Amino acid sequence: MTANQVAAMLGVSRSWVYRNAAPHGMLPCYRMGDVVRFDRDQVEAFKRRCQCTGTLGVSVGVTSSRRPSAAGFTADLSYFRQAAQKLKQSGSTARKPRVHLR
User: Fold this and answer.
1) Angle value at C-alpha 55, between 49 and 60, nearest 5 degrees
2) Is 102 within a domain?
3) What integer pLDDT is reported at residue 42 of this predicted model?
4) The pLDDT of residue 89
5) Which residues make beta-bridge pairs with 36?
6) How far apart are CA 37 and CA 5, in angstroms?
7) In total, how many domains does the chain have?
8) Higher pLDDT residue, 70 or 100?
9) Which domain holds residue 22?
10) Which of 19, 37, 51, 56 matches a 20 to 30 Å C-alpha distance to 62?
């Protein structure tokens, strides 16, 4: 299979296929000089490994399609706002004034 065919099969761009082609990526392929080819069975196996089962967690090659609940998002947002306020109060990320020596 060509990169265009794999991209259509996985629903991704051709550049994503090339970026994730082995040996540097996680998508098995065959390289012959400048030519990159993919085995249909290996691509289908990769697609099955990336299938999300609906639980939140780390997957091999894709992110979860489940959206977080509004309550969870609100809780996360308030946590990060509080953390930002603490940083501002402590001044740990503030830029230090320059000292001019003459």
Assistant:
1) 30
2) no
3) 94
4) 57
5) 31
6) 10
7) 1
8) 100
9) 1-53
10) 37
Q: Tell me whether residue 79 is in a domain.
A: no
pLDDT digits (tens, 9 = 90+) for 38-89: 999 999 999 998 888 765 555 555 544 455 555 555 666 666 676 666 665 5
Task: Find all residues with CB under 8 Å of 81, minimum gap 6, and list them.
Answer: none
Residue 6 domain-assigned? yes
Q: Quickly list DSSP for 20-70.
A: TBTTTSSB--EEETTEEE--HHHHHHHHHHT---SSSS--SSS---PPPPH
**Strands 35-37 and 30-32: what pairing?**
antiparallel
Contacts of 21 (CB under 8 A, 6+ apart): 3, 27, 29, 31, 36, 38
